[in-house]
Each structure stands twice: as C-alpha cells, then as structure tokens.
C-alpha cells in the first residue's frame, strides 16, 4: 500500500510513500514537539529509500558542561532511532560557536569558553553520548573546520545574507531589547554560524530542543540562499525532572545523571510519579509505541504500575550500566523499601562525640544544614541503625552506626570522642 505527497523542495516530483516510509515517519515523529515541514521530510525519506542514500541528520552541541543527564538524552534517543532506520548521524561539536556564547533561553550572554575547556568537554560529551548512540555509525565533526577558514571577509559576506529585522524575531533578543538589556553585535553571529553549519554539512534534518527552533530555521533559510535543498527541523520537548514540574536540571537537583551509580539511578527512576512514568517511557524508552500502549493498557486493567516502573528503571540502568547492574539495583531497591541497608554505603569518620544529631547529619553530608536536619527529623525521615529518630536534641555517643536520611541517603559513620 502506498500514498504520496508533494515535495516542498521539488514541486515537479512526487514520490510514493511506501508502508516502510510511513513507518519510518511515525518513528521519527514519536515524542517530538514539532517536525517542520512534515511533507518535505516524508519526501526525503521516500527519496532515501528509492536511492539507497541515507539522510544526513545533524545535531549540534556546544560543550559548555561536561556531564549529561537523562534530559539531554531525549534528543540522543531520537538520533539513535534515526540511526536504526539507516540514516547518517552527524554529531557536531560547536567548538567555534561555543567561543561566541549562545544566550538561548537566557536574558544574559552565556560566557565563551577557552579552547582547552571546549576540547575537554567535547571528549566527555561524546564518550557519554556513545552510551546512547552507535559510535560506529556516528560522524563526529567540529564546526571550526569551516568556520575558522571563513575569515573576516567570509564572515561579512555571511552576515549580509540575514537582516537585523529577522534576527530580532528571536524571542530572547526581543525580550532583552524591550527590557533594555544589552545585546552585543557578536550575538547575532551565533544563529548565523549555526545555520552555516547546515550549509557546510548539507544537512537534511537538524534536531534540537524547543529553545533552538529559531536557530534551526536560520539554517533552513541559509541553505535556500546557498542554493541547497532546505533541511527539515525536528524539535524535541524538554524532559521534566523528578519533581514532575520543572525541566530536568542539575541546578534544581531533580536530575538523573547518566554516569550516576546504578543503584542511585534505579532509585531515582522509581521515585517518579505513576503519571510521569509514561512521559519517561515515551521519551526515554527504546520500546515500540505499540508495546508501551499495551503496557499502559495492562496497568489500566489492574497491573501494578510499580511493575511497569521497575521495567522502565531496569531498561534505563541496563543501557547505561549492564543487565546485571540493573538486577542488583532492583534487589537493592527492594531491600531499602523493606527498611534494609544498601551495600554501597559511603563511610565517614568524624570526631567530637557526643555530637548533636543535627550537626552530625550535616557533617556526614546527609543534610545541607542543621535546620534541614531538624525538618527531616520532624518528618520522621532520620534513622540510626534503622531506628527512627524523633528527638532533635539527641546527643550521639561515640561508635559506628548507619545514618539514614529519607529513602536514599545513607552513611556508615564512625564517631570518635
């Protein structure tokens, strides 16, 4: 069975959409925020199938921080799906653009990085991204390859291809201009250079977060101006963190780092709500949508949602650690839920016995302050050797014992006089 649509890039050609092309389109659209322009992308897929030439799929990352969390992997998961469909993924390190500094989603300029910072972060980025991507099918490029040779003349010629009025359509520029917050001229170069990356790479599809939509569209327009077929753009939603409200972020402490210990990762995944679990399934799981729909139906028919959450946690932990680590993490989680003490408890040696419980919890690194320690005691969240502590004035004598705060924070403390 086939149907067809008109290609936006070639109005004289209409390629049939086979069942396999429509399936690939459905996989591509899973969990996305926007796919622009869908009819054009369908034609690109049809042409790729007909010619056997894979599409060039680009993701640009400025290595501004070395560590990735599950929120970052939403886009990486989509790249992996496209790899599995046979297309060429280009993992573009923005070593040139990161030294400009992109203010996307901010009201201030992001500070530029040194070359050494860029190279260190880039290596860490790709090593961690390879936990999701197939490194054998990933082309790594650095945009300094074509950006550095442009020189002053080339940069001026590139700048002539875009107007200030169009640049001011970018939401954060508009807000900053209206509020009187300074906008430096060099900031206009960032979307231009990101767009020029698409020209240099002959990109067919570029991915990014919803906050990158303007920059992705600049690439599309520049390709037209350079006589190329314009890329389609695909934006992915921002994954909510463990609180189910704000986007996943280290600064909000609602994140799951992809290099965190297996037990920590498993426990955090089990802490998400039953409702948020399906959002995580859609954006993070490699299961088919049909499989997820069947699992959701089983829960609605009486299956314990905890079992579905365990399956998700095991899948994610297996991806970033191993199947054995996932099984061990499950056993550890069950043990903790029964009031048991995990195996991987950090050991701390402190002096000053007898020591007030609030000070002890702070010095052991289990609470940020004594006031937080007191709140946790009031909530019944503090235990010594599994016994709940209710006395905020308790003085703890010398000895070795296990301190617990909440469900996941433990320390084996040796307290001396």
From TrEMBL:
UniProt catalytic activity:
tRNA(Tyr) + L-tyrosine + ATP = L-tyrosyl-tRNA(Tyr) + AMP + diphosphate + H(+)
What does the subunit comment say? Homodimer.
- Tell me the protein family, please: Belongs to the class-I aminoacyl-tRNA synthetase family. TyrS type 2 subfamily.
Alphabetized, the UniProt keywords read: Aminoacyl-tRNA synthetase, ATP-binding, Cytoplasm, Ligase, Nucleotide-binding, Protein biosynthesis, RNA-binding
- All copies of the RNA-binding S4 domain together span 355-416
Is-annotated flag, keyword RNA-binding? yes
> Which HAMAP family does this entry report, sorted A to Z?
Tyr_tRNA_synth_type2
InterPro entries according to UniProt: aa-tRNA-synth_I_CS, aa-tRNA-synth_Ic, Rossmann-like_a/b/a_fold, S4_RNA-bd, S4_RNA-bd_sf, Tyr-tRNA-ligase, Tyr-tRNA-ligase_bac-type, Tyr-tRNA-ligase_bac_2
Q: What class of enzyme is it?
A: ligase
Q: What is its EC number?
A: 6.1.1.1
Molecular function terms, GO-annotated: tyrosine-tRNA ligase activity
Q: Where in the cell is it found?
A: Cytoplasm
Which parts of the sequence form the motif 'HIGH' region? 63-72
Reported function: Catalyzes the attachment of tyrosine to tRNA(Tyr) in a two-step reaction: tyrosine is first activated by ATP to form Tyr-AMP and then transferred to the acceptor end of tRNA(Tyr).
Write down what this protein is called. Tyrosine--tRNA ligase
Query: What NCBIfam families does the record point to?
Result: tyrS
Q: Which domain of life is it from?
A: Bacteria
For ATP, which residues are the binding ones?
250
Name of encoding gene: tyrS
Q: Where is this motif: 'KMSKS' region?
A: 247-251
